[in-house]
UniProtKB/TrEMBL annotation:
<dbReference type="InterPro" id="IPR000073">
    <property type="entry name" value="AB_hydrolase_1"/>
</dbReference>
<dbReference type="Pfam" id="PF00561">
    <property type="entry name" value="Abhydrolase_1"/>
</dbReference>
<dbReference type="GO" id="GO:0046503">
    <property type="term" value="P:glycerolipid catabolic process"/>
</dbReference>
<dbReference type="InterPro" id="IPR029058">
    <property type="entry name" value="AB_hydrolase_fold"/>
</dbReference>
<dbReference type="GO" id="GO:0004806">
    <property type="term" value="F:triacylglycerol lipase activity"/>
</dbReference>
<feature type="domain" description="AB hydrolase-1">
    <location>
        <begin position="24"/>
        <end position="257"/>
    </location>
</feature>
<dbReference type="InterPro" id="IPR050471">
    <property type="entry name" value="AB_hydrolase"/>
</dbReference>
<protein>
    <submittedName>
        <fullName>Pimeloyl-ACP methyl ester carboxylesterase</fullName>
    </submittedName>
</protein>
Length: 271
């Protein structure tokens, strides 16, 4: 899905769109599905927009330039903050999903005064005890990527998370979403994944974040990986609040965008 606006940030162009009116809420997509938060952005605007959503494609993904590697989590967080600069926003509510939630976390730790609230949809936190088991499950996907089969790696990822009806679910992310994800699989695994596995939640920097934090987890998610991730968030952010999405797993942003929007809208507007 093409985003018609671009912001020049650190030598690259980030594609973005803004919809709705109200408090600014910046959405950070996960891994290789740059259009994955389209349904959530739409749900946040129904029945009437209570927040102004800002959705963008991360560097090198789909409509944005900067298709190079490697790229650090810090660099991606700087892109996020640079987009706020271009939009002349001193601060905003920020929501991140999966690997995008890690980028949102890094932005919040590096510039806490710019975060009005932080919503994290199942961040990939590799310091939790069950990461080793979780990563073992990714081995077949990484093997496909290393063999140059980007389509196979993308399909295996989505099938593993969403089951046999994964194609219908991905289609809700917009026209051509699967093809774009296949294209961006190389960017994710070559440019981003190594940095993602090395990033840790810095306890000292975490103390500087006073903004409200919301942990969103699907109640059918990977156990115990995301449960441990939530516990880690509570350890570093004692004020962290929780929202559980019934019947959803790690594909919650496509399975239950309405339920997530309801939780996020109430949280962000009260922050």
């Amino acid at each position: 899905m093409t985003l018609v606006k671009t912001a020049h940030v650190d030598g690259i162009d980030l594609a973005y769109e803004i919809s709705g009116q109200g408090e600014p809420l910046l959405l950070v997509h996960g891994s290789n599905l740059a259009t994955g938060l389209v349904p959530l952005a739409a749900a946040l605007g129904e029945p009437a927009p209570s927040v102004q959503t800002i959705r963008y494609h991360r560097r090198g993904m789909t409509g944005s330039t900067g298709r190079a590697w490697p790229v650090s989590i810090a660099r991606q967080a700087a892109d996020l903050l640079g987009l706020l600069d271009v939009l002349r926003l001193d601060s905003a509510h920020v929501l991140g999903y999966s690997s995008g939630a890690v980028i949102a976390l890094e932005a919040a730790l590096s510039a806490p005064d710019r975060i009005r609230s932080l919503t994290l949809l199942e961040p990939i936190l590799t310091e939790v005890p069950s990461w080793s088991g979780f990563s073992v499950g990714m081995a077949p996907i990484l093997a496909l990527y290393e063999a140059g089969d980007m389509a196979g790696a993308a399909h295996a990822t989505f099938a593993g998370m969403a089951g046999p009806n994964w194609r219908q679910l991905i289609a809700t992310a917009g026209p051509g979403a699967l093809e774009l994800a296949e294209r961006d699989t190389e960017v994710f695994y070559r440019a981003e994944f190594p940095a993602l596995t090395e990033w840790t939640l810095d306890a000292q920097r975490a103390t500087a974040l006073s903004a409200p934090v919301l942990s969103v987890v699907g109640d059918h998610g990977e156990a115990p990986f995301f449960a441990e991730g939530r516990a880690l968030l509570h350890q570093h952010f004692p004020h962290c609040q929780d929202a559980d999405i019934p019947g959803a797993d790690h594909m919650m942003h496509l399975q239950a965008p309405g339920a997530i929007a309801a939780a996020v809208s109430g949280f962000a507007l009260q922050s």
